[in-house]
Amino acid sequence: MIKTGRSVKDIEIDSNTSIEKIFEELSQSGGFESVNLSDGLEILTEMISDNQCLRFVSFVGAVVSTGLRGIIKNMIKNKWFDVVITTCGALDHDIARHFSHYKEGSFTMDDMKLADQNIHRLGNILVPMDSYGPLIEEKMQKFLEEEYQNGVREMTTADICKMIGKHLGEDSFLFWAYKNNVSVVVPGIMDGAVGSQIWLFAQKNSDFKLNMTGDADLLSGFIFKAEKSGAFMIGGGISKHHTLWWNQYRDGLDYAFYITTAQEFDGSLSGALVREAISWGKVTQKAKQSTLHAEVTTILPFIYSALIRKLQK
To answer: What value does the mean pLDDT take over residues 279-303?
Structure first.
């Protein structure tokens, strides 16, 4: 006989219903992705509250081009996470948006006309050329030269992120990572504007080196000492995989919540549900885990709001 769960309950909301109560309602609604959303909130609450847990957050760089940058910045400002794994685009956009501005656009704009106006399109975000390539080149060369003149000849990606963070301000997630001693690792740092500037700097200064194995030493030092570990993975790709990869060395994550728009039918890492990682030893068999199929700029502000209220209680 198949064991069934509790009865499906209709969602009831009125003008006085709090956001955390709405999440409670979702947990009993039996409503497809809504249950995964409610489960994810509980996982994050327990993970962030667990003082024995090494806490990772990973995210794709594209979201930093949007207003979601403010949520990511605040999660790091709140000291909810110990380690950030991200892509080079996150560094590019954090620098660019601190020193300049992006514009609202739409997915249907004429890209040939935008190119004629020296405007890049990232989905429905418009990135003026002057706010991106030339600006990042100017800032990165200045930052790197300052380090070089102070005698630095070798840097990890974590070092690069600290260097950038100390030159930015309170609107920046890298600034708060630097201020709160949160390590930011970028395994694919050469795939972006910041990485290109590191390469160009090394062309001018042949004794300057980027030490990627130093990041491995940093992560292994965290992982091998962790009593528990957990991860909030926002989008897939290399940032998600690097988080999972390192946690296999301690038999996997104890908490895992993943938000994605990708599907698993093509066998991609981005489409893989968290439970697939159990077979690789990247998530423990007893882990509290959930995968939510959702567009993160839409859903994360609500998760963040509910998390603040639950953690305060």
So the answer is: 97
